[in-house]
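Morning, I've got a small favour to ask if you have a moment. Here's the protein in full, and shout if anything looks odd to you:
***
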Amino acid sequence: MSPMDTRKSLLSALLVMGAMIVPRAGAYYAGGGKNPANDCLIGYNGIDAGDVTGEGKKQRIECTDCDPACDHDGESTPNGTCAMPMGVCINQSGVSGCTPASALTKATVKGKVKRTGKVEIELPLEGSACGEILTPPVPVKGSANKPKAGASLSLSATVKEEGAPKRKDKNKLSYVCLARPEGEACPSASTTSTTTTTSTTTTTMNPCGNGVVDGSEECDDGNANDGDGCTRFCTLCGNGTVTPPETCETPLTCTGGANNGNGCTSDADCPSGFCTTKNVPGCDANCTLPACGNSNVSGSETCDDGNTSDMDNCPSDCIIDSCTSPAGDYTVSVNFAGSENVAGITVFLDYPEGEVIIPGSGSSQSVSDSITDLPGFAFGQANDLDHALVEAIADTAAFPSGLLFNVHFQSCNGATPPANAFACTVTAAGDADLMPIVGVTCSVSVP
């Protein structure tokens, strides 16, 4: 193995050991691409792999009209369409044989539903995240003997990481809405079990998130979105009744379409739109009291990842402060101590955003260019979260303790924050043989 390959191997290990992962929402289906090593790059949110049939480009998911286990339009009689989940996740952990990328530099998502046109799906291009799950109407097509897809969702992602080969993942999933047989009644939400299998195992836990209303559940739409009327705890948010762990109730309102802004009870009340909860004074869209850490962005918050930790993509106060008039060079040194055997290290540098800023974001070249003076022949990988910096450094041999790297910030509106406004934490450290090292610490100084 060449020195560069060794550094990359150690760097990859450190990134995995010290990764800041955002939990995915709902079920995740990798899509069964040609290369399993890339299956975690992009896939489907809200889809259970057990519900998908076929292989390659012929993969499909089926739903029978007005089956509440998979048709989420709330209709109790056949209407010729199935409201089926369409969502996207990127860079997911826990996918067998696939290591998430440190950054996605390009990702395209295509969703075209006949009769209703294109479905716009917003998708972040960095970190590990899932977009919103949409439920557009998929029409019944073909005959009972030869049903056809009424929609398809094609996904593709291209990953470019410095010093590594380009990685790609492409998937296509067809959505088939099956006609309800003439004269057959629609199953009730409380009795349908089309997506479950017989088992002799029993449990006292309700399988919230399986798309079937079980036990004491008030609803189960198969996803972890709180703003669509059914919370991640399978309680009805917006029905006027506070059901624990809900702490308040917020009304259901049409979003989009001709009835935008009007009250509703289901998507059927919102032609060309959706019936969802929203933030109101005193109650957030997920039926919890407004607060940082409740997984719902409201008020002055710019993010909310469900906790009040600084050690992730959202700071502890749920506000990423903006920077005005960035200018100049404000250099901060990151140092480490605790071992002389360190050949690789990952640090999390929390900085006072709003007072300083790193040009660019994520793993862009401008962020990498802002990190200088690495030890020896070390190779580095940076990821700027806009309120903190994650930097992984690796070499083929141990490097001496002391200066690890310098970060060249720009000052915001002339601010000059002291060194104690920065906080540094070692999230992973290892020797040249990839063996973890404990007791390594880091500190910040202003030259």
